[in-house]
Structure formats: C-alpha cells, structure tokens
Sequence to fold (238 residues):
Amino acid sequence: MDLKHTPSSSNTNLDEFGYQQELKRTLSVKDLVIYGLIFMVPIAPMGIYGAVISVSQGMIALTYAIGMLAMFFPALSYGQMSQAFPVAGSVYAYAKLGINKSIGFLSGWMIILDYIFVPALLYIIAANSLKSLLPTIPTWLWLVGFIAINTLINVGGIAFTAIANRIFLIGELIVLAFFIILGSYGLMRGIGNGFTLKPFYDASHFNLNFVMTATSVAVLSFLGFDGISTLAEEEAVT
Fold:
C-alpha cells in the first residue's frame, strides 16, 4: 500500500474514508496521553511481579527489556497508521482501510477481546490484592464495585472520563513514588542483594523458553498506545 498520497493532517476530509465527522472533539493531547497511561497502568508490574519473576527464573529485567523492544515496533506502526488514517477505530480501521474489510472485521473482533480481557485481568488482580488486605470483604464484591465505577465513568461521557483519568493517574503516580522511595530506602539500608546484573542475565538459571513465556505476560504493561488510537476523532482541532 502506498501511503505517500494518504492524508495525514488534522484537516483531512473524512469523507474520503466513507463517513463524516460526527463526534464533538473535546480532548486535548494531554488528555489522550493520560488516557494511554491509564490504559497501561503505571503500577501494573506490581500486580504481576510475582508471576513474571517466578517464570523468568529471576530475570525480570531481561523480560521487560525484551517486551519493550517487541512493543516498540508495533508502537511505531500505530504512529504511522494513525497519520495515514486519522479516524476512530484503531486497528480495525487501519486493517480495513489498509488491507480489506474482511481482515478489518477479524482485527476488530480481536481488539475488542483485548479491551475486554485486559480490564477483566486488572479487576481480578486488584480484587485479589484488596482481598488480602481486607479479608472480610469478598472478592466478588470488589469486582462488582470496579465494574460499577467504570460503568458510571463511561456513562458520564468522554469529558468526564478525561477528568477521572487525571485523578486515577495522580493516585497511581503517588503509589509509584511511594514504592520508589521505600525501595531506595531499603537498598541504602542493605536490604536484599543490592545492585546486581542477575535480573538481566543469570547463567545458572537462564532458560530462553521461560524468559519468553514471562515476556508474554510482561508485555501487558506496554499496552496503551493502541487505546489512544481509538480516540482519534475525540481530539479537539486547534
């Protein structure tokens, strides 16, 4: 496909893609970035840390380095496709307009499953974590609460969602900062093994199959840029 003649500016006429602009553009670039960060969940590695470090035989840094490299190229692809086809729909629109409708249909269903399973996984991890802190409250009640909150935010509209995202991101960054402070304090007090390269490579436990298996879980922490592309028609034109 030749993208040289494909429109790439904010003034693109959406009629060329088969439909008209109907959404009220209310989001700023900052809102989109925050949405992507929320989708990625900056503190997500905390929830899957145990599983990743166990499967990778302690080489969690190597696992995330491989995951980052693997996701770097899809991120570049999304950047190019979002310029070539500045429309809502994410990978569905890109595959439909760039290849054909059949591939677009399959891609659309795959991305929908992604947007269903990833939040479900996060809900389960969060509910189990809270269950360990407050054992008297059943897990299912936490799950119902998460679903109710998420539903109310979505019903409130995209502008309300942007406000909620900012609040959630601030909360997550506070937790992350708290973790970094405590971790640094522990290292300075001599807790643990100190700085070592074993998380990147430990010859006595290295197994490529295990590392790649752990990477398949770790890459969940890099998702988010794909979510931004679904809001291509929500950004306010300046």
Observations:
- Confidence is low (pLDDT under 50) at residues 1-12.
- Residues 22-229 form one domain.
